[in-house]
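Objective 1.3, modelling of assemblies. Example input:
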Amino acid sequence: MQITVTVNGTAYKREVEPRLLLIHFLRDDLRLTGSHWGCDTSNCGACVVWLDDTPVKSCTVLAAMADGHRVRTVEGLEQGGQLDPVQEGFAQCHGLQCGFCTPGMIMTARWLLDHHPDPSVQEIREAISGQICRCTGYENIVRSIQWAAKNADWGQADGAEATA
Amino acid sequence: MTAAGTSGAAGSAAPAAGAGSAYGPLRRKEDARFVRGRGQFVDDIQLPGMLHGAVLRSPLAHARILSMDIASALAHPKVEAVITGEMLAGRGLAWMPTLSQDVQAVLATDKVRFQGQEVAFVVAQDRYSARDALELINVDYEPLPPVIDAKRALDPGTPVVRDDLPGKTDNHIFDWEAGDEAATAAVFAAADVVVTQDMLYPRSHPAPLETCGMVADLEAVSGKLTLWSTSQAPHAHRTLYALIAGVPEHKIRVISPDVGGGFGNKVPVYPGYICAIVGSMVTGRPVKWMEDRSENLMSTSFARDYHMHGEIAATSGGRILALRARVLGDHGAFNATAQPTKFPAGFFHIFTGSYDLQAAHCQVTAVHTNKAPGGVAYACSFRITEAVYLVERMVDQLARELQMDPAELRMKNLLRPEQFPYTGPTGWEYDSGNYPRALTLAMEMAGYEQLRAEQAEKRQRGEYMGIGLSFFTEGVGAGPRAHMDILGLGMADGADLRVYPTGKAVLAISVQTQGQGHETTFAQIVAQELGLSPDDVEVVHGDTDRTPFGLGTYGSRSTPVSGAAAVIVARKVRARARIVASAMMEVSPDDLDWADGAWRVRGDPEQSASIAQIAMAAHGSLELPDGVEGHLDAETVYNPPNLTFPFGAYICVTDVDPGTGVVKVRRFIAVDDCGVRINPMIVEGQVHGGLADGVGMALMQVIAFDESGNCLGGSFMDYLLPTSLECPSWELGATVTPSPHHPIGAKGVGESATVGSPPAVVNSVLDALAPFGVRHADMPLTPANVWSAIQGRPLRTDLAVS
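Predicted structure (tokens):
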């Protein structure tokens, strides 16, 4: 079947099998390998991307279900060579080690901050509780998201000197 | 040099590379690619003409293969090859050596011996078609009774798992012992108090978020075999492939690109890798094989699975005298544990822990069962995890018997600083330590006395709060090579360092990061030695064509072994630079001092040459003394004189709901001493991750089996890993006791928290349950298990049997 999916602002028209998972469509067909395939059962969240404006686990979404919709992945966060504050926060606060869960965590964090610009620690922990990190014990992920909340204008002209 | 303190890092951000000491909480170089989604993991690699492999696995734990029909699979329009055990046998590849002097089936030929065992391999044009074709292979199995309960594996009449081994009539693998049995028995016989306890360290799995996989590409004309592989040990893997597949070693290039977590899971060579290689040989095209999560959990290296009987002897006043342990190790269908050859039970005999004992003896028996092979994995420091769990549970049991506070009992028996270097009753020589200081700091951070007061008050109200301690001594950084080898390969690691004309350096190392941040830490090491910025040092790793030989990253050996190699090679470069500088400044090398990142003329420090200036001169036309080659580089092989022995004091506070059995980890205080910290930010990150592992193992994670040998932990819906909601906000503290034999005093830290934290959590829960008279319950302390323990019937967690 033919689908058209707008990924990070670019429309892609592709012939796909109806059973193709969105994660494999993104990774294998579009070569956007930032989102990862970790568990198949919606438990780990390494595959989290946005479908329209909502984070989804793309290992349990069919590519066909994204037909006519927008998808946003980690590759779409950096704008004009400027990292998103969430990306910067993860680098600032050692919010990652192996980097495998990171893109999914970052996409969830971006959504959280768009809806709750000043989340509590508990709100952050709940927001990422559907995702697994095997390296960090979550502490520095929480700090990274807090950093991004505090430095929401990071990267903009007047916010480039943001500090912790 | 000593120091102690707590870290107040909450919300703080790490600085970028700057002037002054190169050590410190430097932001990681690796992160620029990872936060953009531009890491390159094995599954990200897509080569022209690449095919996809998939493994057919056994649905049964124990069965004879009567026949296999692959005709329908071969007829699938997108299938390029189907490989079976018989075909491999024709190439001499049906079996491969394990890391423990056993063999393991690559693809089963005679029997299947565990659920999930590799039976056939399909190579197809795409990922999905390869999986489709698995369904078309028809295998006729004759089910055999499985051996599932390790405790019955040696009973007469039990089916023999390994009837492939000539003359094998039982499931016994080895008996091994350490310590002085007679001396220990004498101390026990005379002791005032003896406490015993049976305990299980159940089977678990490291479960890195990235599963195992490979892209194999045999270039037909040159014969070069390039393997992109999820490997913690690229050089060791290359040697193994050369030995197994008969490809000359210099024609094999193993590239371990970004690796999505390892924790020991990516140390062994798995059948899937061999199948991918054969797939590329057969088809002449690159072949990618990536496990799915179930395959990872069911077939690759499990961890632990030690059934332990502990005995501790003490005076009535609380002086610990001796320890004794008898262990039954379940090694699964093939003996594929990964540890130095001389140590079939790993380093378990460090089980005397952090205490000053008169005698100790341990005996380990290993058996085969119809379960997946493996056994030494998951950040265990070659079974020190099991050893620390045993001794720390025994100390708590003794405290309860003596009605002593467990912190007081530990403090009374910890080794004292003046006893180091300390040789323990089973032969380990601990390099350095100040144990009481670490425990004191942890107790201060926790507010130990107040916690005990709160606990007493809560118990009056019928609320159950637990306070659990553990004190661990780790042993990391294997070799030396004379005592420690893996498959005959001595555990020493190389490093090459080149400084180019403009003063930029490239360090090539044999170890391989899986998230530990080697590109940053190793740059800091070289920068510190040569007066460079870490930004000016590029670290090359994970590619056997571009790095010196070495045994790889596991057992927390990167910093103790390759970190030392990096220091030594940088000092060699610095010594060469001194000679060049003497020619540049026309002074004797003896008149030069190294200070502030430059060679300076003694008495006239303004006259100096930096490494960058020296590098340019060394590549230029400068006349050099006889015997001094041009350029500025060096190489070394570091053979560690001993392990390093990091240690720590952990305190876990839990709240237990007796109505539901739910355990909440409220606080976790961790004081770690890993000697000198090169990048404290990375060290703390390593500790955080290990603490989460401890909470997971103590409360959630287990690979159990039913009576038929079905794996009950085959997905993340069944094998439960801690999330952000199970983990508290970790409270870290640090003391610094340098290692006397490491060139910069550093010790490893990667596994410390995984080793040290499970007993703290378990001791905490059992402390909470003390009013119910619960003496012990095995991990994981799930709600069902805790509730059952309160009812007086703790569960046997490794089996689901009626």
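Chain B is about 25% helix and 25% strand.
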